[in-house]
Amino acid sequence: MSGVDIKKGTIGANASGSADSTSGLIATCVSVSAKLEYGKLYTIGNLKMAEDLGITSEYDKTNKVRLYYHIKEFYRMAGDGTELHLMIAEQSKTMSELLTDVNLAQKLINDADGQIKQLAVSINPANGYTDTAVDGLNSEVRAAIAKAQEFSNWCFNHYRPLNILLEGRDYVGNAGSVLDLKAIPDTPAEKVSVVIGQDWNYAEKLDDIGKKHAAVGTALGCVAKCKINQNIGENESMNITDSGKDAFMIGGLSSHQQIKDVEHEWSTLDGKHYIFPIREIGLVGLRWNNDHTCVEASIDSESYVNEHTISLGRTLDKAARLLRIQLLPKVKTVQKLDPKTGKLTLGTVKYFEGIGDIAFELMENAGEISEGKTSIDSNSDLLSGEKALIASFTVVPYGTINKISGTINLKNKL
Fold it and tell me: So what CATH class is 23-288?
């Protein structure tokens, strides 16, 4: 008798994917009974949840590590409610082992169901640790760059794309001789960033090993806070100084030098793609210098741009994730073919291009890309071999203003 009967429809899979802020942290540290075990995934949403695991400021102090500090800094920047997946390993593990052992970083990514979008890697060496330098970096950090890129490649190939931030601890303090990250001889690492910045006041209170840490938790929190196409060093909104919490009042490097004492080296370090805090004259507080990755910016003959910044990498990663969400339901479906050629009909081509373009429309409407386009090869063979629908995807990202150049003059009239 109602005349019009309307029922609630069922809701399918989330077309926008999971939160872009979802992050991971893997670190060498000290286990505290069953609350915090080696090689186990812990998912937290605020600092209190970390404290419930036994990760407290006292834990850091007693064990001479910086696990609580990195988590505290992550939430100071990213805010409560941001999902952080955490795993610790023995202090004897190297940074490379964290990334190559299938029971560590790979297990972290798998156990988190591939939801991690950015991963920080930190090492907390024991008191007996002996530092050595290679190319002006701590030897563990230097060796881990290539391993981090290999791990990122594995993640992408297994549909879990992410960016990796390495704690660039124990920078030797010579910008002229340190490795040029954008021109690494063995491995260009477009998905890897090296953070060598620190909160100098905080580090000053630590032991000699602690003084050489880098604030990778702060940087990870900034990545999580940013929109995917936003530079973590943005002047307008990414101030990492907090006077109320006495955080980053004085910027430093992991050589435990104050940044003001090495201002003459900022351009060299920035040009070599390291990430560290700087103070801009006219602005209050500190910002990261940029969102570099370990590769030189390039544009090929077809105008394709490489992932030379964290923001470009995150943009491409999100597009890949959303395209998979849109297209995966169509795998193993049957499609009408042109009876004369056995190839795709024009209608089928346009149908699948429209499905792919939904992902780009979502990102464009969210202000994450300028434009995106799906192209389907009409000659795709769906009758033999792999029966693969051949597609290509092009994304035009947002641009970033790294500097503004102009001239100023006095004039007697306009």
Answer: alpha beta
